[in-house]
Design brief:
A hairpin with a 5-residue loop joins strand 12 (208-210) and strand 13 (216-220). The chain is built from 16 helices and 26 strands. The protein is of the alpha+beta class and 480 residues long. The longest helix has 13 residues, at 236-248. The strands form 7 sheets. Strands 22-23-1-24 form a 4-stranded mixed sheet, covered by helices on one side. It has a 4-stranded mixed sheet with strand order 2-15-17-16, with helices on one face. It folds into 2 domains: 2-18 and 234-429, Enolpyruvate transferase domain (UDP-n-acetylglucosamine1-carboxyvinyl-transferase, Chain); 22-231, Enolpyruvate transferase domain (UDP-n-acetylglucosamine1-carboxyvinyl-transferase, Chain, Alpha-beta prism). The chain binds uridine-diphosphate-N-acetylglucosamine. Uridine-diphosphate-N-acetylglucosamine (UD1) is lined by residues 23, 26, 93-94, 121-127, 161-164, 166-169, 190, 194, 306-308, 330-331.
Length: 480
């Protein structure tokens, strides 16, 4: 397992390009199951989640090939398999996106329930309600959702839930309804840009979807979808994370390939805090050279502040003097990062569904542990701002959703390296004094041979006069 070693306290400065959006790429790749003919996707980031879904699609008869120019080619050779196993689905919740396309194209889908999650309760009842409304027979057996339908029929479907609309639920219902007989309307559809991007991909393949990006989506079913090409939208979450990396180090960054239209709420909030943001087409320059102001923020469905940047904003506010209140209305329990942020000296208190952040102007490096994808990003940001060394552990979460984040941060001037997570790579400054004293200077076989011991008058061996002195000198931090 790897960890990131970050030497913080350096103001960032530089230019990087933002990758394609993970949350658009995954449902689009899954939707290729419903398409007859090869699909070529550009802008699909190289991520663990993309590899996981590629493996699952391979098991379902759709081969995924990364081409020389970076494009992703998806081609279905065999439409017979309908089973997404727990082995694959448990690795990534977004695997549930294969449910709708499989059902629509193959008449049957048997998909493992995704199971627990670190960011809170994540049921799929709305996905199932939508597919049932299209005429699917659905049952849950031995941890699997089994959905069957000889033919799907258009219906009026309301997809709102207690926490708003559902992103992957809308993707699933939309990807199934495109092949249903008749017209489907989805009310309270998720308006996230990634859902609209899936819709554009499906339309390019021959679907007839209107109202994309609004809560009212209309789909006229077609007989067949055919192979197509599509470029995935830029990742607004990665862009926001990099903007906040510049802000938290009180530095600056120029980001290319940003779709600012998708980021209004985040840009507003950063400007309210005092971050200077200049937009020139798809290039954004972020600069932060003065003290920031505390703000209150609420994570909401699009076009609100995304829940996927809530943790990173909390980290940034942790360096902003004054009191800020952070609330998450999408995943009200998504605060696993708070206890780790305390380890770098942030002052944050959980109160119900809020984090009360009392910003501190000095964070200090620490060893911290990531609990989920966006929490990892928050910890990386905090470590960039903290004085001294930090290590961020369990970064496999980070690798699921950020394409070579440490390379991008390095290009922006950060001191970040990926190392194996073992005690030898933990910087001396992060080992408690006690542990440092106990670590021998050299392995025992390199030690000087011990002087012969004298037997004291009591009959007990006594150490030679120099022994105590040399051992304490040898283990002192300065001798290491
Ligand atoms: C997607 C994103 C994730 C993001 C989230 C919210 C992908 C691959 N993942 O996740 O990064 O954090 O949207 O923007 O795109 N809910 C129900 N019943 C359901 C489905 C959801 O009650 O059937 C609730 C959830 O518990 C949550 C809220 O609705 O409180 C939003 O969840 P949802 O939009 O479905 O999240 P995902 O699609 O899983």
């Amino acid at each position: 397992m790897d960890m990131l070693h970050i030497r913080g306290g350096k103001a960032l400065c530089g230019e990087v390009a933002v990758s394609g959006a993970k949350n658009a790429a995954l449902p689009i790749m899954a939707a290729a199951l419903a398409v007859d003919g090869p699909c070529r996707l550009r802008g699909v980031p190289e991520l663990v989640d993309v590899r996981t879904l590629s493996t699952l699609l391979g098991e379902l008869g759709t081969t995924v090939t990364r081409e020389e120019d970076g494009g992703l080619l998806l081609a279905t050779a065999d439409n017979s398999s309908c089973v997404a196993t727990y082995e694959q689905v448990r690795r990534m919740r977004a695997s549930i996106c294969v449910l709708g396309p499989l059902l629509a194209r193959r008449g049957r889908a048997c998909v493992s329930l995704p199971g627990g999650c670190n960011i809170g309760h994540r049921p799929i009842d709305l996905h199932l309600k939508g597919l049932a409304a299209l005429g699917a027979e659905i049952r849950v057996e031995r941890g699997y959702v089994i959905a069957e339908a000889v033919r799907l029929y258009g219906a009026n479907i309301y997809l709102g839930g207690a926490f708003g609309s559902t992103v992957t639920g809308t993707c699933n219902v939309m990807s199934a309804a495109v092949l249903a007989e008749g017209t489907t309307t989805i009310e309270a559809a998720a308006c996230e840009p990634e859902v609209a991007d899936l819709g554009r991909f499906l339309n390019a393949a021959g679907a007839r979807i209107s109202g994309l990006g609004t809560p009212f989506v209309r789909i006229e079913g077609v007989e067949q979808l055919t192979g197509t090409e599509h470029t995935v939208i830029p990742d607004r979450i990665e862009a926001a994370t990099l903007m906040m990396a510049a802000a938290i180090t009180r530095g600056e960054a120029t980001l290319r390939n940003v779709c600012v239209r998708h980021m209004t709420a985040v840009l507003e909030k950063l400007r309210e805090m005092g971050v200077t943001i200049r937009v020139n087409g798809s290039t954004v320059h972020v600069r932060c050279d003065g003290p920031l102001r505390p703000v209150d923020c609420i994570a909401l469905p699009y076009p609100g502040i995304p829940t996927d940047v809530q943790a990173q904003l909390t980290a940034l506010l942790g360096t902003t003097a004054g009191i800020s209140i952070v609330t998450d209305k999408v995943f009200p329990d998504r605060f696993m990062h708070v206890s780790e942020l305390l380890r770098v000296g942030a002052r944050i208190r959980r109160e119900g569904n809020n984090a009360i952040v009392s910003g501190s102007d000095s964070l200090s490096g620490a060893s911290v542990m990531a609990s989920d994808l966006r929490a990892s990003a928050a910890l990386v940001l905090a470590a960039l701002a903290a004085e001294g060394d930090s290590v961020v552990r369990r970064i496999y979460h980070l690798d699921r959703g950020y394409e070579r984040l440490e390379d991008k941060l390095t290009r922006l001037g950060a001191d970040v390296s990926r190392v194996k997570d073992d005690p030898a790579h933990v910087p001396a400054s992060l080992r408690p004094d006690e542990e440092r004293r106990q670590v021998p200077l050299r392995p025992p076989h390199f030690a000087r041979p011990a002087a012969p011991r004298e037997i004291g008058s009591s009959g007990v061996a006594v150490p030679p006069p120099s022994a105590g002195k040399s051992s304490s000198a040898g283990n002192s931090p300065s001798a290491r």
